[in-house]
Amino acid sequence: MNSLQLALRVLRVDRRTRTSAILTAVGVAVATGLVLLLASLPFATQAREQRAEWQTGYHYNTGGRPVMMVGDSKDYFNGQEIDRVDVAVTGNTAGLKLPAGIPKLPAPGEAIVSPALGRILNTTPADQLGDRFGQPVAALGEQALRYPEQLVAYVGHTPDELTGEHPRPASGFPTKEAKPDGLLTLLSWVGIIVLLVPSLVLVASSARLTAARRERRLAAIRLAGATPGQVTSMVASETVLSAGIGALLGLGISPALHGLATFVPWAGGTWLASDFSLPVGLLVLIVVAIPALVVLAGVLGLRRVLRNPLFATGGHSVKPLRWWRLLALPIAGAFFLYAVVTAGHNSSGPSMVLFGLFLLVASAMVVGPWVTSAVGGTFVRMWRRPSSLLAGRRLRNDPKGAYRASAGIVLAVFTGSMALTLLPSFDSLAGGGRPYVDSVLYADVTSTQAKTVVDKANAALARYGQQERALAVDSVYLTQGSGRYQNFERALVMSCADAARLTRLGITAADCAEGTGLYAPYQMNTAGYSVVGEPYGSDPGKPLGNVPMKAYSENSKSDGSYVLDPASVPAGVTPSYTSVIAPTTDANREIVRTALTAAAVGVDIGSLDQHLSGQQTQLDDLRRVTVIGLIAAGVLAGCSAAVATAGSVMDRRRTFGALIAAGTPVRVLSRALRMEAALPALVATIGAGVVGVLVGVGLFSTVNSGSVVLSPWILAPVVLGIGVALLGASVCTPALKRVQAEPLADE
């Protein structure tokens, strides 16, 4: 009888071995499915970007004779982002190959829109949205969209309408391979580690269900004359059966997991089912590698059986854990602190910080069992009930086994606490944008375009019956000094009255005075300054002269720009850029945006709320990923704790059977098991949570010197740890009753 036949025979006759094999297969299936899903995320983002390559003008082919002019910009409607591509045909497009999902090139005055944008156009007045694009004549297919809900407009123009710096000549649509999203790629690797660890712990806990019985069986076979190679081959065959079936099951459930992932938004939208695909080679590698790791772990676990004779496997003495284990965490913490403090002073700073994080995570595996043993020793010394003494003895005698079930939750709670410390702090930094008030819309154009754009926008506003009017604001720079000691200060060229009405610099109507040419946050000698259009150039500029100036009280949220009256700008200064701005109200904001968009074709129309939308979208994505990861890791860790608890009962079936036969109440043993299952999880949760918060504070200090914002969500890992502890302890009583129901002689 070969090793495989013997493994199959054991599975047929031993119910407990079958249970262990089934749970091992489930654990491998979960691990395989999760890794396949997470490994596909970079490829999913790449597929997304590949479909949307045509939406970025810089990606178009420029080699050969240009046949069209292309420009891309961002538009907004009621807080929703609209990706806009403007095109004007300039040559023969007969041989031009269109990307999938684009039915044709739009003619001047026509637009091809995404289905989602088309639905909005059908229910919105033209002066609020439709007049920005022209007449919709077709719909874009999903193969031309980044995600199904994306709002996209492909707008046609004449060559004369597309002028200035933004449109670019192109000979064809993009053909280069898109790049995956760097942030989601990083998070997918973090997710693989955070979720794979509890999955493999679940596999290990499942294998422990029959650890004692398997060791006795293998030791007996070894004593009967089996060689170490034969014993190893038998265990490998037994493990290959369950792990292989689990890997195939994980491959089978992978499409279902991909289907669920399509509903999770990222970067503004959901996914197509076809996005989640892996190269065949990588898929085969994952399906083979995970069960191979399980088999390797099973084979390595045979060392004691191969060394010791029959019945010696259960009688080995437990070596006490040394105190030096406790030093691993402070040493790793000290290195991380050093890496954080010196991160900004050398090029290898980020790498050192990441290595410090790795050391902190690794130190948990060293410190955790020692802390578990110390807790057990405390219970032994201070016990008041028999259950406390039994639990303490178990934690003291097998701290590694008791801590093993909590290993997955340690990593999850550490990562979650770190993320929940960083996210609110980053959220408090969200902001920035232009110096204009929130209600102002602005468009950056060339100085030669400014007058035409203002005239067109104001004509449209008058046609729509609006009182607001657009105006052009040039940007120049005040400079003094020379060489490396030369400094530049930006100045907005506008009247004081307009600055008080339209900016958030801090200038008020009371600050405006007749004849004043410069307004600055502090008093300054204007005679020592020159005015240039471009900063950091070779132009020495024109002397500003003795221009009357006045200081204003700067708003803490402003960017400190100066305001220079148009009459005080020296002759011959060409502005670096010009912004066409227009005030709005809540009632007419979209109408004013429509007027500006039609006047400044292919130019982003911005405002503060749109400036913040990208930041908020990314923060929302990170919050969502953190919550999903914590929940998944918590469920896996809870299942691992439950299986480990059941395995602990089965491992000590003889002991518990003897105690029950001697009259020990099941409730006492059950209470002892609940304590030994819950305590490691709680200790791991509290410790990992505290360390995660401290690490989050350290990481935040590398990007900002401000104070950290702590939100109530930081308590979520504590709740997660309590849930894991309760789930692990819930199987104690059923497992003990099963032991009570079976004859002790069966063992």
UniProtKB/TrEMBL annotation:
<feature type="domain" description="ABC3 transporter permease C-terminal">
    <location>
        <begin position="191"/>
        <end position="308"/>
    </location>
</feature>
<feature type="domain" description="ABC3 transporter permease C-terminal">
    <location>
        <begin position="630"/>
        <end position="739"/>
    </location>
</feature>
<feature type="transmembrane region" description="Helical">
    <location>
        <begin position="353"/>
        <end position="380"/>
    </location>
</feature>
<dbReference type="Pfam" id="PF02687">
    <property type="entry name" value="FtsX"/>
</dbReference>
<keyword id="KW-1003">Cell membrane</keyword>
<feature type="transmembrane region" description="Helical">
    <location>
        <begin position="401"/>
        <end position="423"/>
    </location>
</feature>
<protein>
    <submittedName>
        <fullName>FtsX-like permease family protein</fullName>
    </submittedName>
</protein>
<feature type="transmembrane region" description="Helical">
    <location>
        <begin position="677"/>
        <end position="701"/>
    </location>
</feature>
<feature type="transmembrane region" description="Helical">
    <location>
        <begin position="240"/>
        <end position="264"/>
    </location>
</feature>
<keyword id="KW-0812">Transmembrane</keyword>
<keyword id="KW-1133">Transmembrane helix</keyword>
<feature type="transmembrane region" description="Helical">
    <location>
        <begin position="21"/>
        <end position="44"/>
    </location>
</feature>
<feature type="transmembrane region" description="Helical">
    <location>
        <begin position="713"/>
        <end position="736"/>
    </location>
</feature>
<keyword id="KW-0472">Membrane</keyword>
<dbReference type="GO" id="GO:0005886">
    <property type="term" value="C:plasma membrane"/>
</dbReference>
<dbReference type="InterPro" id="IPR003838">
    <property type="entry name" value="ABC3_permease_C"/>
</dbReference>
<feature type="transmembrane region" description="Helical">
    <location>
        <begin position="276"/>
        <end position="302"/>
    </location>
</feature>
<feature type="transmembrane region" description="Helical">
    <location>
        <begin position="323"/>
        <end position="341"/>
    </location>
</feature>
<feature type="transmembrane region" description="Helical">
    <location>
        <begin position="186"/>
        <end position="207"/>
    </location>
</feature>
<feature type="transmembrane region" description="Helical">
    <location>
        <begin position="625"/>
        <end position="646"/>
    </location>
</feature>
